[in-house]
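Structure first, sequence second, as always.
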C-alpha cells in the first residue's frame, strides 16, 4: 500500500474479513464482494467506512464491476474462493 496509496482493493468472497481495518492508510478504496446473505450479516457486525463498500453479488457474476469506482491501480484479493475454484 505504501507504493500505491490511492489504489483500490477488491476483496472477492469477503465474508467477515477485517483486512481493511488493519491495512487502511486513509486513502484506499475498498470493495467487499460476497453473497447477499453474507453481506447482510457483515453490515450488521462490521460498520462500513466512507471508503469501504459492500456489494452483495456472487463474485463470478462480474456485474459487480459496474458498482466499483474505476481507479488506475486496483488489487484483487481472495482468501476464500481460491480454495473453491
Amino acid at each position: 500500500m505504501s507504493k500505491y496509496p490511492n489504489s483500490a482493493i477488491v476483496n472477492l468472497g469477503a465474508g467477515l474479513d477485517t483486512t481493511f481495518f488493519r491495512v487502511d492508510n486513509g486513502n484506499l478504496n475498498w470493495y467487499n464482494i460476497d453473497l447477499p446473505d453474507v453481506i447482510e450479516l457483515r453490515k450488521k457486525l462490521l460498520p462500513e467506512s466512507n471508503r469501504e463498500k459492500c456489494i452483495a453479488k456472487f463474485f463470478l457474476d462480474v456485474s459487480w464491476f459496474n458498482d466499483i469506482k474505476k481507479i488506475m491501480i486496483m488489487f484483487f484479493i481472495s482468501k476464500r474462493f481460491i480454495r473453491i475454484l
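Margin note: Residues 15 and 35 are 9 Å apart (CA to CA).
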